[in-house]
Amino acid sequence: MSKAYNPQEFEDKIYEKWEKSGFFNPDNLEKAGDRFWNAEPFSIAMPPPNVTAELHLGSALFITLQDIMTRHARMRGRKALWLPGTDHAAIATQNVVERKILEEEKKTRTDLGREQLLRRIEEFVSHTQGRIQNQIRKMGSSCDWTREKFTLSPELSLAVRTAFKKMHDAGLIYRGERMVNWCPRCGSTLADDEVSFKQAKGHMFYLRYPVKDSEDYLVVATNRPETMLGDTGVAVNPGDSRYKKYVGKIIMLPLLNREVPVIADDHIDKAFGTGAMKVTPGHDHNDFEIAKRHGLEMIHLYTADGKIDAQEAADHGFDDYAGLTKEDALNRIVQELHEKEFIEKTEEIEHRVGTCYRCGTVVEPVVSKQWFVNVNAEFKIENKEFSKNLRLPEKTTLKEMMTAAVKSGAIKIVPKHFEKIYFEWMKNLRDWTISRQIWYGHRIPVWYCPDCTETIVAVEPPASCTKCQGANLKQDEDTLDTWFSSGLWTFSTLGWPQETSDLKTYHPTVVLETAYDILFFWVARMVLMTGFLLNDIPFKTVYLHGLVRDIEGKKMSKSSGNRIDPLDIQAKYGTDALRLSLVLGNTPGNDMKFSEIKVEAGRNFVNKLWNISRFILSTPPLKVRGGGGGLSTLADHWILDRLDETVAAVNRHFENSQYGQAAEELQRFTWDDLADWYLEIAKIEGNKKEVLDVLLVNILKLWHPFIPFVTEHIWSQMAKSLLMVDDYPHVPEKIEKFAARPLFEAMRELVTGLRNLRAEYRLGSTPIYSSYLEIPKDLEWIKDHTPVIEKLTRTKLNFAVMDHAHKMPYFLWEGVRIYLVIPNFDSKKEAALTEKQLKEAESYVKKISTQVKNKGFLKKAPKEIVEKMQADLSAAETKVKTLKAKVKQLK
Ligand SMILES: [Zn+2]
Ligand SMILES: [Zn+2]
After folding, report:
1. What percent of the chain is predicted at pLDDT more than 70?
2. What is the C-alpha to C-alpha distance for residues 294 and 248, in angstroms, rounded to an integer?
3. 328 and 467: one domain?
4. Listed residues 370, 402, 431: the one ending a domain
5. Average pLDDT over residues 80-87
6. Out of 247, 478, 529, 563, which residue is the most buried by the measure of CB atoms under 10 Å away?
7. Nearest CA to 528 among 482, 480, 488?
8. Where would I find the Valyl-tRNA synthetase tRNA-binding arm domain in this sequence (predicted)?
9. Are residues 193 and 339 in the same domain?
10. Residue 830: what pLDDT?
11. Tens digit of pLDDT for each residue in 423-460?
12. In a domain, 186, yes or no
């Protein structure tokens, strides 16, 4: 083993060794030992990263956590499968490529055409996919690359088409006219949860709508005047006396030569605006409902690429505006309304607008023909066991089933409080719009026959129309929402719709580990798909991790310039240090603050482990067997006792999904107990090879899931086999508390006390001082440990009575005074110094306590500041007490 820890020297080689061994693939594990025969399977489907970009720290976190789970399960003798893959991320990927082409070549997607654009996207994807795979490898992931999947591959495409067909046949997928959110920039529909809302400034226009054949007019208020092109009515409340006489009259729309009726509808709020509302059923959720109730016509203003539709314009008398974008139409219409005095007044307003979560463009509500998943339609659950487990009747709906999967306890969410959020979403669940007007993705498996208007849903493209045998079938132009395919991820990756042995062995998966922000987008959709298609749950536990933020708690992003590239960190500190910094202090569901200082601390620890191992590996074997070797001293018993405790604690934390706590427990043991105490004592007592070897083997195993590279490398110095398939330390059946353990703890207190005293009187570490121990009979055992204590404290122990006249400093140990003899000690000078310190401490306590008691301050100050001050106060109070005692002692 080289002297310095240099991860760059071995990390890549170790990964190669693992990959070559074949043990990432659970089928090969039986070769690693008997304990894998008939072993219990364990599986995780890796959340497929989007092919749009390189991995970030959030990805590094999920990879680390899932690798810890997988490696732990494998070492516990389970057939561990961690299945990797990537997601085509339809709309996001198409956006990235479209923007790039627009920037570099000034061409739009319509300039390129469907085929050209798809080819360009595939080129882009083949490039990014390779980069992502490398980054996953670089993190040390023990995933099975032989089973790697891509959401847009032919096998997964078959799964998607099969799923669509089955759901359609069961009446759970339908096509309908719906008001949907539409992004004019992306030219695509967005699901409700893909719209993000923000406050924006705008104008409310009060428009004069003339009553036909009169000088009279009604005033309607709108913040989207351009939509007047699509007006098909004006609505008032039937109980509104101001407008009673107008109901049934005809309005001539300004600028257009079109007549629309005035109707009365209970849903109109008399107090809103002027109480008279323009009705635009094609572009407003409420108006859509009103139009349905009153049989008003619906006008679609825009074409798929966001321009005023020429056909609709010709049909409804607004030819002049055909071909304009929404922006241009708005500007022109406002100008014309002004010129012709149709605007009574305008007001500045602040309102909530929905924007596209991908590109930030304001979304437009539009009515269009879309495909939907019906979450409220009944279907029959074929598998009785499944419905029984979920406590569901035989007939249920997707919404009920998704709720029941978590409510029944079949799926557990960690941390638990996210279950409430999940139920809240389920309550508000609406039909899921699954069609998207983009080209990159799974094309909807539906064909239309222009000859007889038949609609055919099929897994494979039909050669001719099933009704009229016509051969002019046209496939639906739209593609499926990307979550439709990722919803199948846990089982499409295992070979479904074929009944493969992988599917039988590894499904349902054990854990789904993902970020909490896609609980609904992804997790819920997986529950939906698996529940209906397989009559099963996709996973037993959902483990949610928080987001990785910068040190100030801000979200990391390219635009704010606070993004940290994991590859840079890995090059500087090594992968193990990065992994450790991500897992230490990490708790499920909570965001974490990340900084390079944490990685540095991680690297320092790994370095410590390196040095511990080097020391143990270079310790010579026992000189005389049975003569002084084995378990002979207090320290030996104590450290093995602590090892048992640590193994038990680590395994318990694994069971509770507390990986951060497991690592902390291990770090305490390795650094505090082993390195700082036991190894120091071992150097003094000597002849410890046996115990040291036991300790080394165990800490390497215990640490392996967290920091796999360095542990495997050290392991290779002492064994030919691979650590990754060795067995994880088992919890001892009964932890036998070593009877003399309190003695070791007492000895440790004595050493700490003497060391503290030395530090308190600024004595440095080299010179040896005398100490006096006035020991009663029952503490005489401590004499047996004199050499160890003397070396650890650089003190000469005198078991005799100290002359009290000397006023030497002392501390209390087990109720006995332990004196430290300091040559030329001036107790008066020391007392004066201490009194000065005491005064300072007292005035500090006074200052803080008045502030902490000040009600005005308590009200205004942030909670963290108040808490910190309270902690400071109690620390300062303790200090005052200690200094008082010291003064008393010195006088
Ligand atoms: Zn958009
Ligand atoms: Zn036909």
Report:
1. 98
2. 12
3. no
4. 370
5. 96
6. 529
7. 488
8. 829-891
9. yes
10. 83
11. 999 998 889 999 988 899 999 999 999 999 899 999 99
12. yes
Q: Distance, CA 190 to ligand 1 centroid (Å)?
A: 8
Distance 109 CA to ligand 1 centre (A): 14
Residue 735 has pLDDT above 90, yes or no: no
What is the bridge-based pairing of β-strands 539-545 and 509-515?
parallel
- Angle of helix 575-583 relative to helix 57-75, nearest 10 degrees, comes to 90
Distance 449 CA to ligand 2 centre (A): 5
709 close to 576: Cβ distance less than 8 angstroms: yes
Q: Are 388 and 442 in contact (CB under 8 A)?
A: no
The answer to whether residue 469 sits within a structural domain is: yes
Check if the beta carbon of residue 378 is closer than 8 Å to that of residue 507. no
Q: Which two tokens stand for residue 92?
A: 């996001």
Listed range (124-138, 222-236, 338-352, 853-867) with the worst mean pLDDT = 853-867
| Helix/strand/coil for 277 | strand
Classify the phi-psi angles of 765: left when phi > 0, otherwise alpha if psi is within -120 to 50, otherwise beta. Answer: alpha
Instruction: Count the neighbouring beta carbons within 10 Å of the beta carbon of residue 334.
Output: 17
Confidence check: pLDDT of 625 > 60: no
- Distance of CA 462 from the midpoint of ligand 2 (Å): 11
Query: How many structural domains compose the chain?
Result: 3
Residue 428 within a domain? no
* CA-to-CA separations, 513 to 41, 44, 339, 414, 419, in angstroms, rounded: 17, 8, 61, 10, 15
At residue 626, does pLDDT exceed 50? no
* Residue 449 located in a structural domain: yes
Residue 214 has pLDDT above 70, yes or no: yes
Q: Which residues contact residue 281 at a Cβ distance below 8 angstroms, ignoring those fewer than 6 apart?
A: 230, 232, 287, 288, 290, 291, 292, 296, 297, 298, 299, 367
Please check the confidence at residue 629 and state whether its pLDDT lies above 50. no
Residues 444, 587: Cα–Cα separation, whole Å:
41
* CA dist list (Å): 358 to 60, 62, 441, 484, 679: 23, 23, 16, 18, 56
Q: Per the structure block, which two tokens stand in for 768?
A: 């040896």
Per-residue pLDDT reduced to its tens digit, 541-554: 999 999 899 888 88
For the domain that residue 852 is a member of, what is the CATH number?
1.10.287
Ligand nearest to the CA of 186: 1
Q: Cα dihedral angle (291, 294, 299, 300), rounded to 10 degrees?
A: 30
The boundaries of the domain holding residue 855 are: 827-891
Ligand 1 centroid from CA 183, angstroms: 5
Residue 624 has pLDDT above 60, yes or no: no
Strand partners, 85: 149
Choose one of 370, 392, 407: the last residue of a domain. Answer: 370
Return the amino acid letter for 127: H
Give yes or no: residues 197 and 324 share one domain.
yes
pLDDT higher than threshold 90 for residue 820: no
DSSP single-letter state for residue 495: T
CATH code of the domain covering residue 259: 3.90.740.10
Contacts of 417 (CB under 8 A, 6+ apart): 589
Find the helix or strand (DSSP H, E) in which 884 lies.
helix 863-890
| Separation between Cα atoms, residue 76 and residue 510, nearest integer Å | 15
Measured N-to-C along each axis, helices 659-667 and 575-583 cross at an angle, to the nearest 10 degrees, of 110
The CA distance from 236 to 274, in Å, is: 9
Ligand (nearest to CA of 473)? 2
Structure tokens that stand for 331 in this block: 């500007």
> Which residues are within 5 Å of ligand 2 (an ion), measured at CB?
449, 451-452, 454, 465, 467-468, 470
Of 277, 304, 302, 303, which is closest to residue 290 (Cα–Cα)? 277
| Cα 65 to Cα 737: distance, rounded to the nearest angstrom | 33
**What is the 325 CA–ligand 1 centroid distance (Å)?**
15
pLDDT in tens, 151-168: 999 999 999 999 999 999
Angle, CA 425 vertex, CA 420 and CA 427 arms, to 5°: 95
891 annotated ligand-binding residue:
no
Q: Which residue has the tokens 């018993």?
A: 637
| Same-domain status, 366 and 450 | no
